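Lab notebook page, bench 4
Experiment: in silico fold of construct C2
Operator: M.H.
Input chain length: 286 residues
Purpose: comparison with the prior construct
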Amino acid sequence: MNNFVVRTITGVLFVAIVVTCFLKPLAMVCLFALVTGLSIWEFTGLVNQRENVKVNRFISTVAGVYLFLAFAGWCMQVVPSAAFVPYLITVVYLFVSEIYQKNEDAINDWAYTMLSQMYVALPFACINMLAFRSMEGETIYGLLLPLSIFVFLWCNDTGAYISGSLLGKHKLFPRVSPAKSWEGSIGGGIIVCLIAWLMSYIDHNNVLESFGATPTGLSTLQWIGLGLVVVFFGTWGDLVESLFKRTLGVKDSGNILPGHGGMLDRFDSSLMAIPAAVVYVMSVTM
């Protein structure tokens, strides 16, 4: 089976699984808890290949998954804020344990350990803040906002690829990602604006109400603004991961997804886009 067919099959299954998971809150929490764990395991495995770096992969991964689940429980109002205490204790342990490890460069270990939490775990945990909202003391699950982040990212990638292939002449960041162009980025942004308008129509007319799509409270202009925020920060997220891999000298972050690389390769854009979307939505709906 050639690489194109493998990539296509994997891509279709990937999109189907991500979209389907948002239909049920428990499925969403379970899937992204798994994605968080796999991504941190992948990240720590890569940085441990660097000289004088010895990150505790197991504890870092467990801590990241726990942070995601604590966020989910807190956003659903089923656990108190005290649920974050074990996570904080684990972070303290990861710092203090270096005293007894006798590793050559403790600062590197601390830096990469915390980077796994700030760069991977926290952004994924923030998706719960888009999915669960408190209204009049009741927690409401809505699939439109978290799903829209990935729809925008996918449409941006598709639009950027098509525009870049047809019109791309001016490189965006040749040092980090030679294939990206300004024309591609602009084309992707235009496509996302159109999709954002469509999402606002779906939102305002309750088109997906039967699937659990509760109203978001965003106007059409605010939906377009959200789309542009995702485009900007998603592009930066992609470039950040490209720089990360280029620095490590690897082509893909992993091989868990045939033809598509690893988890970080598939979710790199969302690691910047999700937190940015949370800040944006909270700012315009306050």
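Observations: Strands lie at 132-135, 138-141, 171-173, 177-181. The longest strand covers residues 177-181.
Next step: discuss at group meeting.
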